[in-house]
Design brief:
It contains 16 helices and nine strands. By secondary structure, the protein is of the alpha/beta class. The strands form two sheets. A seven-stranded parallel β-sheet has the order 1-4-5-6-7-8-9, with helices on both faces. It has a two-stranded antiparallel sheet with strand order 2-3. The longest helix has 25 residues. It binds coproporphyrinogen I (1CP). This is Uroporphyrinogen decarboxylase. InterPro entries: UROD/MetE-like_sf, Uroporphyrinogen_deCO2ase_HemE, Uroporphyrinogen_deCOase. Belongs to the uroporphyrinogen decarboxylase family.
Length: 341
């Protein structure tokens, strides 16, 4: 189906656009009262994500209510470990928790390479329903976690400030670590290809825990696998967002992806210099800027837009929108991007 608004895809490919497209990481499941209403009708996050009609409904809410130029499918990066045989729970107000972890060869033997169409059928169904309901209004973004970030949760068993058990594994068991990372990578490639077949117009890889590795380990245990994914996915444009990986920007310019996401600690002009002119950059307003008053938000957004001006850009925050941000302030950010000349 022909898209009515394909700004995101054209900006990703480096084509001319009338204005800069804008969307927000974590736009679907956090800030909207309309989301919370749907969320309260089910037992929790997992039931919502596994009910395709409802997942499609909350995916489209930000398009209707906020006016963003893309939808992102409502799911989580942790559906991959589950599809590989490691189930998770979402503990209210605390986040993900895995009853079992993966720390030995015998744990590894219990895992399988996920098949996107079968093991993650509920996401694939949700994408198809979302595409139907969107009816070509805006592109739909599919996503997955980067292998290193997924590895960190599978070894640790939950979120963590330091992910010291996962990082311990890289030092003590590098061979085991590479085996697990390869298994996650193969699953992720299957999953992203299935998302694109189902209708995802662009895919984003979230390396949320990139910044806790040093530069050398980041090359060996993360970028190597992101490279495999980018090389394998040729069916749609790819965005790589590696939070905190300021040290890897030059290396990332060699990835076969169209767009690189910047967090708000990364200088815009410096990033453009390090990455070069051949990638689109996405980001990177400080999510906390949306706690400001409307004038402050407009000014911060214009300052950001001026620094990107003239080069390939998709406007976004530098990380996911915080759950207690007022949706009216998000609308001011979006409108300011749309009005920017
Ligand atoms: O918010 C959206 O737009 C909906 C889709 C979405 C996405 C893109 C969800 C739903 N999760 C994600 C990605 C995600 N999940 C990332 C990568 C992006 C980022 O860095 O923010 C990460 C690291 C996760 C893992 C995760 N899931 C956490 C973080 C825990 C930690 O270690 O700090 C948490 C709290 C979740 C739960 C979750 N995921 C999504 C929702 C709506 C929720 C809340 C669950 C609920 O409603 O109870």
């Amino acid at each position: 189906m022909q898209l009515q608004n394909d700004l995101l895809l054209r900006a990703a490919r480096g084509e001319k656009t009338e204005r800069t497209p804008v969307w927000l990481m974590r736009q679907a499941g956090r800030i909207l009262p309309e989301y919370r209403a749907v969320r309260e009708s089910v037992s929790g996050f997992i039931e919502l994500a596994q009910t395709p009609e409802l997942a499609a409904e909350v995916t489209i809410q930000p398009v209707d209510i906020l006016g963003v130029d893309a939808a992102i499918i409502f799911s989580d990066i942790l559906v991959i470990p589950e599809a590989m045989g490691l189930p998770y729970e979402m503990v209210e107000k605390r986040g993900p928790w895995f009853p079992q972890t993966v720390r030995s060869e015998s744990d590894l033997k219990k895992l399988r390479v996920a098949d996107g169409d079968n093991d993650l059928k509920y996401v694939i169904d949700a994408i198809q329903i979302t595409k139907k309901h969107l009816n070509g209004r805006v592109p739909l973004i599919g996503f997955a976690g980067a292998p290193w970030t997924i590895f960190a949760y599978m070894v640790e068993g939950s979120g963590s400030k330091t992910f010291s058990k996962s990082r311990e594994m890289l030092y003590r068991e590098p061979v085991f670590s590479h085996k697990l990372l390869q298994l996650i990578t193969d699953s992720t490639i299957n999953y992203l290809k299935a998302q694109i077949r189902a209708g995802a117009d662009l895919v984003q890889i979230f390396d949320s825990w990139a910044g806790i590795l040093g530069p050398k380990q980041y090359e060996e245990f993360s970028l190597r696998y992101i490279t495999q994914i980018c090389d394998a996915i040729t069916e749609a444009p790819k965005t790589v967002f590696a939070k905190g990986a300021f040290f890897a920007r030059e290396s990332m310019s060699k990835l076969s992806c169209e767009t690189i996401g910047l967090d708000w600690n990364m200088g815009i002009e410096e990033s453009r210099r390090l990455i070069g002119p051949t990638k689109t950059l996405q980001g990177n307003l400080d999510p906390a800027a949306l706690y400001g008053n409307p004038d402050q938000i407009r000014q911060a957004t214009i300052e950001m837009m001026e620094q990107f001006k003239g080069s390939r850009h998709i406007a976004n925050l530098g990380h996911g929108v915080y759950p207690d941000i007022d949706p009216e302030m998000v609308k001011i950010f979006i409108q300011t991007v749309k009005d920017f000349q």
